[in-house]
Amino acid sequence: METKVFSVQGEEIRNITLNDEVFNCEVSDSAIYYAINSELANRRIGTASVKNRKLVRGSNAKPWRQKGTGNARAGDKKSPLWVGGGTTFGPQPRDYHVRMPRKMKRSAMRSILSKKLQADTIKIVEDFSVESGKTRDLVSILKNLVKEERTVVVLQGDDSMLRRAGKNIPWLKVQSYNRLSAHELFYGKHIVVMESAATKLNDFFAKSIERGRS
Question: Which domains are delineated in the chain?
Answer without folding.
Answer: 2-28+100-213 (3.40.1370.10), 45-95 (no CATH)
